[in-house]
User: Fold this.
Amino acid sequence: MCDEQTADDNDRFLASVHPSRRTFGMLAGAAGMAALWPAPADALAVAGKDVTIATPDGQCDAYFVAPASGRHPGVLIWPDIMGLRPAFRQMADRLAQSGYAVLVVNQFYRSVKAPFLAAGESFDQPAVRARIMPYTQALTTAGTVRDATAFTGWLDKKAQVDTARGLATTGYCMGGPMVFRTAAARADRIRAAATFHGGGLVGDRPDSPNTLIPQMKARFLIAIAANDDAKAPGDKDVLKAAFAAAHLPAEIEVYAGTMHGWCPPDSRVYDAAQAEKAWGRMLALFETALKA
Assistant:
């Protein structure tokens, strides 16, 4: 992996999704739009707090939430391009209610503290895009690996995390390649990984996310938006072949009728039924992969 390679994952993400301005406005809902998700059946009481994590590149602001008692598998969440915001805190809370110790990070910590969007702002607005794009250019392939190592190491030191059960990682949109890099860099710890409408998962560079699959040991869920699949219909086949060659279980599915960004509850293209299906498949994956 080249330490000097800057923003390649981000470039692949933008190239693979390549939505119109109208679509950008639809996929990036304002932070204040978050719908209330139902708590899971038999939801556990949870406790969450803002945390700061030291990395080789600085201090990352993040949110950590876990059941109020006991030790549980740890999960690292990489947000979409709109960053750590109320919707992702809500998603972390819901996952913790199902029995997981969850860390959701501000992947743009090198540039800005989260949340960095005000109510009503979205990626289709020129001023907002102009503000966010420099944040993305500050990300590097090597930096993501350093972050993944720091974040997973931080989780493993928490009293609420049952290290015997391994870790999971999930990512949304631009977080998809970050999941792949985390699963490859920490193959010793990551047993389950899931991406939701991930962009730039397949490429032809030597360190493209799909080329890292042989380095992984995790079971995968890859939930693909229908309009993303329409733009790159061969990507799912490349991924299926790579996981099969690596002898890694991977559930790879195009979710009918969905648009890029359909999973977070504050998205303007949020699809409740399909988001619930994807959430359920993620929980099933974790139940299988994170057994003691």
About this structure: The first strand starts at residue 46 and ends at 55. Confidence is low (pLDDT under 50) at residues 1-7, 15-35. The chain has nine helices and eight strands.
